[in-house]
Structures are given as structure tokens and as C-alpha cells.
User: What shape does this take?
Amino acid sequence: CHSALDQLDEARQHQHMAPPDPLGDLPTHAYSAWLAYRDGRLDHAVSYADDVLVMTRRPWHEAMPLIARGAVRRERNQLAEADEDLRSGVESSRRWSRAGIEVLGAIELAHLRFAQHRGTEAFTVLTEARPRALGTHLLQRVELAEALLWLRAGDVERSAFGREELADGPLTAELDVRLALAGGPLDDVPDRLARFEAGSQSLPQRITAQLLRARLALARDDDVAAERHLRTAIEWGRREQFVQLFAPDLPALHNAGVFGFKCFLVDSGVPEFPPLDSAALGPALSTVDADAVAL
Assistant: This one.
């Protein structure tokens, strides 16, 4: 429950007290896979997920590890593999009436569709997930995902309208910073960013905070600070091979003065910088072309 609510500190405490699960008879590893993904320990998430999917004799335990592994693959830009895992996870959760897991999977699937430049499908996935979002938190997670994707699509007004439907709190802290950077006065950004950082419990949140600080520094013409924050974000991100986490900020960083971005099409010799495959290259080229970034 705590990991699904993104109460990561509490979830970690319960994980340490949970009984071992060597045969997959208990859902310990299944939920640990999701917790590790949300915490930013992507290798651990895949390991937990693989263990469950190999060992479990209970097919209703498969939905969460499939979604967690799919989410990691989406984050690492392994889009074809992510598609297979996420669709299988959502179907499994639906088959076994695991509505909460289904909604979490739908949110991840919507982010995948957006990464694949299938924006209309992304919003359709979220719309269809609404009736299954039982409870305030899950419904707000769906609405937050919609608002963030509208912002990425360039519709600040629609994103801001979605924000009005959400309660104030840690859940909306990142969105508040992004909206202020997109259209509000910069004077509001430091306080909002400080609130976001104060509530950060995971590596992805800390990386995101560094990217947002870089954007703020560039907006203030402080290139030295911007470079420092960007280097920190890249250093933290490459340890777990984060890719998609950086995508929402690339257009804004380019517009603020970053000259271009680099990727590898062949083995770089460094495991943290794998080459783009054909499934990932198309969306990457579309992003570069759409924003007139140097290639």
C-alpha cells in the first residue's frame, strides 16, 4: 500500500520487516519490484520482477512485476520490450480484478505511448483508466499524469486547468514547478522548487530537481550553475541508465541555450551509455527535428 501511494520511506520500513519469499508464494518480491522502480533502483526492480515471474506459482502475482519491469524498460528507452510487459501487466491485473495495479500500469502505458509519439492514445489510456481508479489518491495520480502530459504537449492552459482539480501537496509539487517555469513569474519558482525537493524521497525526484534547477539557472543567465546542476543530474542518472526521465526537460533546456544532445548508434564501450535501437531511434529523431536541435 505504501509503495502504491509513493510513501517510499514507510514502504522501505515494511519491506525490511517482510518475510522472505524464496518460492514466490508471497507478494513480497512483486511489490518490492514496484518499490525499487519508484525509488530509482532500476536494476533491483528488474531483478525482483524476474525472480517473481520465474518462480511464482500464483499467476495473480504476475501483474505487478510485469508492470514494474515494463516501467523500467520504458525509462531505459527499451520501448518495444516495455510495450509487451506493460500491456501484459495491465491485461493480467484486469483478469485477476487488481484494479489498483491496473491503474498504475495504465499510467505507465500512457507515458510509453507519449514516448512513442502516440499522444492521442496516451490520453485515451488515461481516460479509460479513470473508472478503475478507486480512491482519491489513484484518481489524482491519473489526473496528474494527464496534466503533466498536456504540459509536455505544449498546452500550458489545459495543464493548468487540470492542476486546479488537484489538491495541494507532495503529489503536485513537481507540476507546480513546471507550470511556474512554463508560464508563471520566475519569482515563484525557487519556493516551489524548495517544496518539491523537501518532499523528495527517490532518486528520480532528486534528478528531476537538478534538471529544474538547471532550467531556472539558464533562465537567469547563470550558465555556471546550470552546468553544475546538469552534470549532477547526468551523473546520478547514468548509474541506473535513466533516459526518459530527462525527456520532459530537453526542449526547454535547448530553448534556454543548450546547443544539442548526443547518443550512440553503436556500442559506446560504456555500459551506462547503450546504443539506441531502431525502436528508440525514431522517437529520438522526431524530438530532435521538432525542436530544431543539432543532430
User: Anything to note?
Assistant: Residues 79-95 form the longest helix (17 residues). Residues 201 and 231 are 21 Å apart (CA to CA). The chain has 15 helices and no strands.
